Amino acid sequence: MDYAPCSTSATALEILMKSTYKVLAAAAALALSAAGQAVPVALTQLTGVTGGTIAGTAVYKADLSTIGLASILSIGIRDNSSMLGGAGGQFSGFDLDAIKLSTTDCADAACAAAAVGLAVFDFTSGTIFAPGTQRLPADPKLFGTDGSGSAVDNSIARLGLFDGESTTVTPDGFLSMGDNGAIDFNLTAATSTAGLFLYIGEVGDNGEVAAGSILVRDTTSVPEPAGLALFGLAAAGLARLRRRC
């Protein structure tokens, strides 16, 4: 197909491209600089179990006062359970019963379940969930998600309560992340790490938390740096325009 000559001269086009690249590169750099610090945390399993009527939730604790950050704004969990546990059409990967930030220092699971948590989680709009792979035969949704499997339904997951039932009752009270799934919680306010403890509950007590990756950050989490995505799209568009001139 023949194209009509571009009205912009080659020199003007080069100037436009260079200016656009500079603006977009600056936006990308800004997005990256806003990434802040992401610190992995060490978890210790507490004694005993908690959960629903069938108490099968193991609780893990991290002392956030030792991580080197004055405050945190987001928490990320990455499943790395190596396809262990779970069942086809049911739960796959790390099954998250609950997550809590508290200034109460607990030694057992029952204490963690009863401890008063800080009101800094928004389990609906403040959660970014990237579901992993579900074992075949796959169900239309993972436990604790909506029908698409990509959004947390907290009326089912109830991530603020240690009440998970490792059964097929509804609501189940936990979120199945899927193999290699990821979830990020953006807190509603910057939270001081002084005297702060993180508690994470894992349904089934089969070590999936210990096999995963838990990060805390001093900035909010985003799916990807917006500046980089914009840079890629605009660069491709300008390249096509240049080839047509």
Automatic annotation (TrEMBL):
<dbReference type="InterPro" id="IPR013424">
    <property type="entry name" value="Ice-binding_C"/>
</dbReference>
<feature type="signal peptide">
    <location>
        <begin position="1"/>
        <end position="38"/>
    </location>
</feature>
<dbReference type="Pfam" id="PF07589">
    <property type="entry name" value="PEP-CTERM"/>
</dbReference>
<protein>
    <recommendedName>
        <fullName>Ice-binding protein C-terminal domain-containing protein</fullName>
    </recommendedName>
</protein>
<keyword id="KW-0732">Signal</keyword>
<feature type="domain" description="Ice-binding protein C-terminal">
    <location>
        <begin position="221"/>
        <end position="243"/>
    </location>
</feature>
